[in-house]
Amino acid sequence: MFDLLDIIGTMAFAMSGALTAMHKKLDPFGVFIIAFVTAVGGGTLRDVLIGRTPVVWMQDLKYVYVIILGFFLTILFRKRLDKLRTSLFLFDTIGLGVFTLIGLEKGIVTGLHPVICIALGTMTACFGGVLRDILCNEIPTIFRREIYATICIFGGIVFFGLKKLNLDNDILYLLTSVVIISVRLLAVKFKWYLPAFDHKNN
Amino acid sequence: MFDLLDIIGTMAFAMSGALTAMHKKLDPFGVFIIAFVTAVGGGTLRDVLIGRTPVVWMQDLKYVYVIILGFFLTILFRKRLDKLRTSLFLFDTIGLGVFTLIGLEKGIVTGLHPVICIALGTMTACFGGVLRDILCNEIPTIFRREIYATICIFGGIVFFGLKKLNLDNDILYLLTSVVIISVRLLAVKFKWYLPAFDHKNN
Amino acid sequence: MFDLLDIIGTMAFAMSGALTAMHKKLDPFGVFIIAFVTAVGGGTLRDVLIGRTPVVWMQDLKYVYVIILGFFLTILFRKRLDKLRTSLFLFDTIGLGVFTLIGLEKGIVTGLHPVICIALGTMTACFGGVLRDILCNEIPTIFRREIYATICIFGGIVFFGLKKLNLDNDILYLLTSVVIISVRLLAVKFKWYLPAFDHKNN
């Protein structure tokens, strides 16, 4: 189940990366690299910073195959993906939840402090997008208005809060995912965002 | 003493990063990440390249707390920080000296050649700023006019020169810091900078 | 022989990086860092992702010295390098072949799957240029029209195809390099490139 959600999330991230790159008029190689980086960039950064190398997608090729599949699907159906916008958004939100949990768990297994685990969860879920934006020569979206990352931090805090209740691990994971996914859906529905600083006028 | 200077430097780097991000009108999450990357990005890159993982701020949470404090101080006092410009500049210069020394020392402990140790010292002190500029979608300042990095290289050479004199370690550290900090102060006072190449006209 | 080609490739990459940085009007420190990153950035990323640290140029100083030499040669002869354009292009192409092979081999030694080895070969040959472009605040060239990276992937596939024939290692390496170098020369001569996606019009 969790593995399936991981694959769905990876696919959604890869497709959103590919779409961004196609809008930037990159060539197929560029589109593939941006899809790849969007999907596994956050987890790669996490693995490098905690020293778990070779990084995960080098040891488990399912990520590579899923991204290749997502890349071709995006190219083939690019005219029709606008109609699938809602499904893609849902899958992306599933990815947000699952990737945060994977990051949290890797931090715990490595024996790191909860604060660092929450940082790793957020990094896993959000820094693929940061790397995508850097490669596309943009200031990262999540540094501007999106509360994307804030939801992961919140999810991480909920996770460690629930963990103190000695819940079964499956229930702990399920609850945390549900919280992250629900808050994300509410955030988009009600247009929650962080206000930008306006240094000169404030 | 050295630990205190490390904290002062980290705080100054975090605050300068936060100010830059606020000028770019990022949201609080973006400002925090830029503050974080400016403060510990150089040391993180160093740790990753030499293979000392999990990277330093994952193992010693004082950096995280100092950056969080610097982040809130910058937000609270952002209108008044202009008046503290001189103090902030001094703290930043202290950071330059201390971070260079930390990088040099990590290189020596890892058994690397002096040339590489000097590179690591410079990286520790300067590449947080490089990563900050990349995330803010700018060509890094220190690649253009600033002699910031050149001072670290010079400091590293002085360090290995003095090291041959078999000085006590404390004195060696003190002298190197004083040299780096003094040259930086002189450089700013007398507006020393490296001339840019102008490929077409030269 | 192979070592010599490695040095020639490193020198060519460093010089092309230095030229790019000088066109961007960076100062000498910036030019040096861009030269350095262009030359060893791909290999550094590869080493970090597979966990071979300290990264290669920290352990084998020949790279540092070759880059320093390339940096000074570029500065001294910058007015005349246009006349050497053909030689530089040839050396760059040699670098493409050699670096791909080095990446492939490191992947094999690390025990990774052929698909990942091909990714590592491509990364070693092409991602120095990606990092150079990011530092110069450009969307990476190889993501737009260049088939540079595609040639490395093709070379990697040829390598594993030939490997099944149980050729002698030297012949295997020679053949793969010749293939990569020839395809690159043909690609430039006949202006082969990948078409960019134009999301709106397609």
TrEMBL record, chains A, B, C:
Protein name stated in the entry: Trimeric intracellular cation channel family protein
Membrane topology, record value: Multi-pass membrane protein
Pfam entry (one): Gly_transporter
Membrane-spanning intervals of the chain: 6-22, 29-49, 61-77, 84-104, 110-135, 147-165, 171-190
UniProt KW keywords: Cell membrane, Membrane, Transmembrane, Transmembrane helix
Taxonomic lineage of the native organism: Bacteria, Pseudomonadati, Bacteroidota, Flavobacteriia, Flavobacteriales
Record organism: Flavobacterium branchiicola
Major localization listed first in the record, in broad terms: membrane
Domain Glycine transporter as annotated: residue spans: 4-78, 90-163
Lineage: superkingdom: Bacteria
InterPro entries hit by this protein: Gly_transporter (IPR005115)
Family classification: Belongs to the UPF0126 family.
Compartment(s) where it occurs, according to its Swiss-Prot or TrEMBL record: Cell membrane
